Amino acid sequence: MKASTNDFNQSNFIGSTHFGRLFRGKFEGKCVTVKTWDEEFLESISSKYNDENLIINEEVKFWTNPITKGHPNLVTLIGYCWEKDVKCVVYDLNPMDTLHNVLVKDELNWIQRINVIHEVAKLLKFIHSQEKQNMTFNISASHVLLDKEDWGFNVEDGIAMTKIAMQCIDFFPMNRPTMKEVLQDLENLVALQRLSDTRPTKREKNYVSL
């Protein structure tokens, strides 16, 4: 893992999560994402539960769960390293950046924001459909990784997006759309954008939550 990330070099650093860091790496000729944990966090968990392997066991259990494995908005686990000096997992993902970083840099145009919201909405719908006792998610902008894309900008898309957002914050809760309705509106908006964008260089974008 040290070799794949150039000894976790700062040039390969993507961003920080709540309890660790994300790096770009090369594994068997493939671009991957490597997640590490803060040593202090690992020690506190090991001490609290008297199990030094708890974190990696739970990580592998989650990503190999039939419910989550293969979901289009979740990463695929390639493998892990749990040695004394290196503790990390490897995901099959070549990221551009975290959602948190691109929002801070203000690098997303309207249609890119729509695509992000659309994908996150699909993931939220998936989460809401699961039994709470079986699924635990911690979703934040620092846990969402974005691939590169090439989408244009349409003013009408921005107007439509604003209307959806205003409906979601309506003063009267009974007037607010359900997550299913929001997702349907976003899917319609994305479909219209794709039909109107005829550029041959257009590429789709995948969004995944870590």
What secondary-structure arrangement, pairings included, does this model have?
Blueprint: E1 13-16, E2 20-27, E3 30-37, H1 39-49, H2 54-63, E4 77-82, E5 87-91, E6 97-98, H3 99-105, H4 110-128, E7 144-146, H5 155-168, H6 179-196, E8 207-209
Antiparallel strand pairs: 1-2, 2-3, 3-5, 4-5, 6-7, 7-8
Instruction: Please compute the radius of gyration using only Cα atoms.
Output: 19 Å
Mean pLDDT: 74
Quote the distance from N terminus to C terminus: 19 Å
Strand content: 15-25%
Major β-sheet profile: 5 strands, antiparallel
Series of H and E elements = EEEHHEEEHHEHHE
GO molecular function: ATP binding; protein kinase activity
Subcellular location: Cell membrane
Organism: Senna tora
Keywords: Cell membrane, Kinase, Membrane, Receptor, Transferase
